[in-house]
């Protein structure tokens, strides 16, 4: 039984195959409309969502399956009943569980007690579905991911972690540009470095914009993550030098821009860039569905003859 919790469950060839399958599903959705026929997928949400909920719900429908949405009104996992019992019961009814949770430990417990695939649709440490959609979007614009240089600007959060790990597996150079003290988790970065040693990717963490001159793609995310009650005003001055704006693109020569959204316009990114010719942000949002459908098709149908 295979799951997707971090993307480290897959090697380079397997991740490339998922990206290729996402592209194929995007190009010819009708060919996959029976992929999940007669199958149901539970989508668990401890955190609110727009893109994740809609892309999984519509994506499962397009594959011929049925999505069952559960939020905390149905009883928070681990409170009304144990995560173990959640996993055991759901496994008797559905063919897969997609979970958007506060704590990665919840996903580990789901995986340990479920008899169906678990897909991490976001947690405090990782956002693997987002990363696969991101690299699918990059692959639509660059023929060879091993020749791409990706810069992530802002807080070293779950998105940054998944970009590091996935880029390291795929052979893409990834540099995190963040204020001192706001870089990625050191243990996760070291795990990514070990993966990069196999693929030839170069990873780095810096607080200097000068280090990303000549890069291809710039990526950013909100400076204050969902669930973090830190007032934006208290971090604005620290992060404003890392804003993605036209001046930064001109200075670095970066051609394309990504943002996982929701975006705080005129903070981490300016509207003229977000809506301008360098932006791949709406393609990226659309590709959430196609990349996720490739994941669903691959994991839920594993073992089928």
TrEMBL record:
Its EC number is 2.1.3.3. Pfam families: OTCace, OTCace_N. Residues 2-140 form the Aspartate/ornithine carbamoyltransferase carbamoyl-P binding domain. GO terms for molecular function: ornithine carbamoyltransferase activity. Keywords: Transferase. The keyword Iron does not apply. Residues 147-298 form the Aspartate/ornithine carbamoyltransferase Asp/Orn-binding domain. PANTHER family: ORNITHINE CARBAMOYLTRANSFERASE, MITOCHONDRIAL, ORNITHINE TRANSCARBAMYLASE, MITOCHONDRIAL. Belongs to the aspartate/ornithine carbamoyltransferase superfamily. NCBIfam families: orni_carb_tr (TIGR00658), PRK00779.1 (NF001986), PRK14805.1 (NF011380). This is Ornithine carbamoyltransferase.
